[in-house]
Amino acid sequence: MAYRVEIKTDVEKTVGTTTTIERGVHDLAGNPLDNAFMWTFRTKDAPFEQVWSIGLSMTDGISLDGNNMAGVEYGASDGTDEKDAPSVPAMAGQMRLSYLDRQRQEFDRNIRPADGRLSHHWFFVIDNVEKYATVTLSWQPSLLLTKTTRQYQVMRLVEFDSQGNVTNNISLDPTQVNTNQQTGDPELTEIYSYVNKGELTRYFRLDVQKENFVAKSFKKGSSGWKFFSAPVTPQRAEPFVNLGDDIDPFKLYEYKTKLGGYKIYPFDIGEVSLQTRYGYWTRLEKDIEVDVGGASNFNDMLLELNTAGWQAIGNPFILPVNVADLEVKEGTSTVLFDEAVADGLIEGTLYRWDIVTKDEAYMSEAPISDSYAAVTNSSKLEPWEGYWLKTKKPDITLVIPAPQGIGTATVETPAYLKLPRAPRLNSPLSQRSLPQFTLCAEVFLDGASDRSTILGTNQEAMFGQDAFDSTEPPVMGQTVAGYFEHSNWGEAAGSYNQDYQPAMNIGEQRTWQLTVYTDKPNAPMTIFWEKSIRQVPSDIMLSFREVGKTTWQDMRQMSKVEFISDSRITERKFEIKAERIERAIPLSGETRLLPCYPNPFQTGVWMPYELSEDSAVEIRIYNIAGELVRELDLGMKPAGSYVDSSKAAYWDGCNQSGERVASGIYLYIFKAGNFMAVKKMGICR
């Protein structure tokens, strides 16, 4: 808890025979101050975490690697900083335990911020254990973590296989660690052992987290104000504990009906608490993710409304509640919502604060902004929303009934709170592994562009929203945007700037719907992909068409689409289709030049080849008159197959000066070491 302190003293002054008492604000020496003298201090019940740590040690009975520290400290960051200690390089084959970040950097000491977050996770890896040796893991939590009143109740080890899949969960109970009989401090205690079956590496994750919590995305509207409630009973009522790590700067406004005004945290510290059933206001600087630790409510909830007037209320459940099911109790009489309205106990319309995001405002033809929306008896009280309810009589009780199914209801964990998987091992991929590709569809408008609209497939991607997808940033006026619209993604529905789908087997297809938007009228627009498609493997066929049109066009045969924006708002929808085809060209064992593709071509051509040995490769291109047009020096290439578009030699149809050459027949001479071959290609502009 944080407190502010002011020092105010009375000072007795004597002038001549007259003694006066000067009242006011003074320093501790009694000197008057022009401004209040104050400071802030925190008690042990501070909303921030107290500093704590966990030491890990491992042995195989012969070697030992200890003193590996994970913990939280003030001033630490999630990334690498001065509080972290990178692992000292070990000898090859030496057994060791190291913490890993997402870039696979190794640490002996990995410290995170002490900011009261819901959970902390550390990956660590055990390397180079002798085959068939028994590995024993031990831990030493700091004293704070052994208290039954600790902030984090759940601790565990999660074990993974070589593909990053969970194979084992080991619960950790810090209250059961060995303690020093003289000092009472925790000592190193065994927690897990396993027999090495020949693997060189084994991954674990150390989880330290609160037991129960709910989370929600708060969108910043045009006004910045947010009217919300907590759908659980918070574990601690201190506002900063729950929301201070999410909202910055943080202020919480609680309406007091009796006062007819607001109490504001932290100015009215000690007078504002976060409780379920009530509505609160805060102000957002940006879209945020909030979380509240606490217990779900399963029974009817009562709210005493002792003063007539506006009441800021909220839904205390994780499921919606029908307004018509609300009850009002006066004395010994209890009536349903409609009867309470008819009896003059309450008004029949509630109000919530309807948020309008920047994207929604831009897409609307008429000016729109945040405003109140009416909530009637046919509506529902939604979790996380705040509501105004006006009571006409004092000393009544609002009964919020537990919704049907609340006993077994669960809420989906937001993507940002889902536990991470272990990094995959650096194992070689088989020749039959699934392909991956990336295509950037650049959109150009006179004076503006969107050059970050990306689609593709990835071996670790899933259907629907996942970590490989990213949302479209707000679109500014008089500019252009390309994005993928996904209205069927539930809570993740919206516009996406980057959209990856699972990798394809031979014969499979994937489709993306690309929307191009601008509010600049009568302007030439271009969708362009020529540079990006050069990196797409040749066994991925890409086709393009406008939605509603029947003709698909080969994207390797065309480099762009051009059109003119409409008179006011232009929103054109296109489809991009990817298909994986069988195009396996085995290494023949000899150096050879293969036919170029496409032939003839418009904008660019790939010239595949194979090398039986490491060779210096160069290609010279001549026109039909025998004049040198372009020379491509590919440098030293190792033996192998250079067949797909990511490896084959490429000519963009330009001469040495960068000018596009005319349509016609061209010869190209391929030279690799002592091997030389000549083939023919055609350009059709």
Explain this structure.
The protein is mostly beta strands. The strands form 15 sheets. Strands 5, 6, 7, 8, 9, 10, 11, 12, 13, 14 and 15 form an eleven-stranded mixed sheet that branches. The chain starts with a strand and ends with a strand.
Provide a concise account of the structure shown.
The chain is 3% helix and 45% strand.
Structure characteristics:
685 residues; mainly beta; eleven-stranded mixed beta sheet; nine-stranded mixed beta sheet; 45% strand; globular; disordered N terminus
Shape: globular
Radius of gyration over all CA atoms, rounded: 34 Å
Q: How much is the average pLDDT?
A: 84
Structural class: mainly beta
Per-chain topology:
Layout: E1 2-6, E2 8-15, E3 18-25, E4 38-42, E5 52-59, E6 64-73, E7 85-86, E8 96-100, E9 106-113, E10 119-127, E11 134-141, E12 154-160, E13 166-171, E14 189-195, E15 201-209, E16 213-218, E17 225-228, E18 233-234, H1 239-244, E19 252-256, E20 261-265, E21 280-283, E22 288-295, E23 301-305, E24 309-314, E25 321-322, E26 327-330, E27 333-336, H2 337-342, E28 350-354, H3 358-363, E29 371-375, E30 380-381, E31 386-391, E32 396-400, E33 437-440, E34 442-445, E35 448-450, E36 454-458, E37 470-471, E38 480-486, E39 494-502, E40 509-518, E41 524-528, H4 530-533, E42 540-546, E43 553-554, E44 560-564, E45 570-580, E46 592-593, E47 605-607, E48 609-611, E49 615-623, E50 628-637, E51 640-642, E52 649-651, E53 664-672, E54 675-683
Parallel strand pairs: 6-9, 36-39
Antiparallel strand pairs: 1-4, 2-3, 5-6, 5-11, 7-9, 8-9, 8-10, 10-15, 11-14, 12-13, 12-15, 16-22, 17-21, 18-22, 19-20, 23-32, 24-31, 25-30, 26-27, 26-32, 28-29, 33-36, 34-35, 34-41, 37-39, 38-39, 38-40, 40-45, 41-44, 42-43, 42-45, 46-48, 47-52, 48-51, 49-50, 49-53, 53-54
